[in-house]
Amino acid sequence: MAVPAAADGDPPRITQAYAGPRPGEAIGIDLLNYKRKPGVDLVAESPVFAAPIRMDDPAGDTGGLGVKAPIPASAKPGSYPLVVKARGKVVARDTIDVKPPKRPSIEVDEGGVRRPGTKVRLFFDDLYSGESGKFFTAHSSAFTSPVRLAHDKESWNNTRVFSALNVPLQFTLHDGTYAVWVTDGDGRRKAETRLEVRSARPGDADYLGKAKGPAFFGKADSPLSSRVKDFTIAAGRTVYVSWQDASPDAGEEERLTATSPAFEAPAKLTFDLLKGHEMDAPMFWGPARIKPGLKPGRYPVTVVSHRGRVKKTSSLTVTQGATHDDGVPSVVWVGVGAGTLVLGSAAVVLLVRWRRRASVS
Question: Which residues contact 61 (CB under 8 A, 6 or more apart)?
Answer without folding.
Answer: 67, 68
